[in-house]
Amino acid sequence: MTDPYEPTERTIPTRSRDRASYDRALVHSILDEAYVCHLGFVRDGAPVVLPTLYGRIGERLYVHGSTGSRPLRMAGKGAEAPGLPVCLTVTHVDGLVLARSAFHHSINYRSVVVHGTAHQVTDPHELRTALDALVDHVVPGRSRDSRPADAKELAATAVLRLDLEEVSAKVRTGGPNDDPEDTALPHWTGVVPVRRSYGTPIPADDLDPSVALPDYLPVI
Questions:
Q1: Which of 104, 127, 139, 168 has the most CB atoms within 10 Å of its CB?
Q2: Quick count: other Cβ atoms within 10 Å of Cβ 161?
Q3: CA 138, CA 29: separation in Å to the nearest integer?
Q4: Smallest Cα–Cα separation from 200: which of 179, 176, 218?
Q5: One pLDDT digit (tens) per residue for the chain, 220 residues
Q6: Do 189 and 168 touch, CB atoms closer than 8 A?
C-alpha cells in the first residue's frame, strides 16, 4: 500500500469534506481513465482555464501544448525558469441524480484537483518519453504503432511537467438526498447512469486495405 497524499490548505474542500480522498491509487485511476484535463492559471491578473490532453508517468503529469501557447511562454524555458503556478482538474460524470426537489438534484462524479508549478520539458529524452505517454494515454500501445515525431515536429511541440504533490480526489456516489417531508411527492427519483462507450473504428479513406485493425483498438 502506498502512502496517501498529504492534505494541504488548498486540497481540503470547504464543502462535503467526507467526499474528499487522498488515496494515491484512487487519484491515479481517475487520472488514467480520463482523456482531457482543464489547466487553470492567471494571466494579466485574470483567470484562464484551457482544456488539453495529458498523460501520467508515475507521480508526474505531462500536459500537451505548443511552443507558441501562452502557458508555455509564461512558464519559461530552461532550468532557471520560475515555472507557471497552475491548478489542473479532471472530472468523470458517472450518473445524473434526480431528486424530488430541484434543490437536491446532483450528479455522481469522480474528480481530481492538482495544485503546483508547471515547468516546460526541455530535455530531449524526457520530451520524447512525455510525448509517447500522451499518445498512449489516449490509446494504450499506439506510440509503438505510429511514426515518432521528427525534429521539426518536436520543435513545434511543447510539454509542461507537473508533479503530483498537492493533490486531492473527490467522489460522490449513491442516490438522491431528499428531505423526509418530500418522500410522498409524486415525482420520479433515482439515478440515471452515465457511461462512456466506443463505436466501431472507421478506417481513413486512404488506408491500405491490407493494414489490419490493431489489437489495441476496440471492435464493437
A1: 168
A2: 22
A3: 14
A4: 218
A5: 579 999 999 999 888 888 999 999 999 999 999 999 999 999 989 999 999 999 999 999 999 987 667 776 677 776 677 899 999 999 999 999 999 999 999 999 999 999 999 999 989 899 999 999 999 999 999 999 999 988 888 888 889 999 999 999 999 999 999 999 999 999 999 999 999 888 889 999 999 999 999 998 876 5
A6: no
Report how far residue 63's alpha carbon sits from residue 61's, in angstroms, rounded to the nearest whole number.
Answer: 6
Residue with cell 504533490: 165
Cα(36)–Cα(181) distance, integer angstroms:
41
C-alpha cell at 46: 485574470
Bridge partners (DSSP) listed for residue 89: 38, 113
Q: Which three cell numbers stand for residue 104?
A: 437536491
For residue 18, the 8-state DSSP code is G
Task: With H, G, I as helix, E, B as strand and everything else as coil, classify residue 87.
Answer: strand
| Nearest alpha carbon to residue 28 among 4, 53, 64, 50 | 4
What cell numbers appear for 97 in the block? 441524480
Query: Rg of the Cα trace of the chain?
Result: 21
Pair 175, 191: CB distance under 8 Å: yes
Nearest C-alpha neighbor of 91 from the set 63, 114, 62, 60: 114
Would you give the DSSP letter of residue 43? E
Angstrom CA distances, 73 to 2, 64, 81, stand at: 36, 13, 10
Q: Which three cell numbers stand for residue 34?
A: 480520463
In sequence order, which ranges of the chain are alpha helices (DSSP H)? 24-33, 70-75, 124-138, 151-156
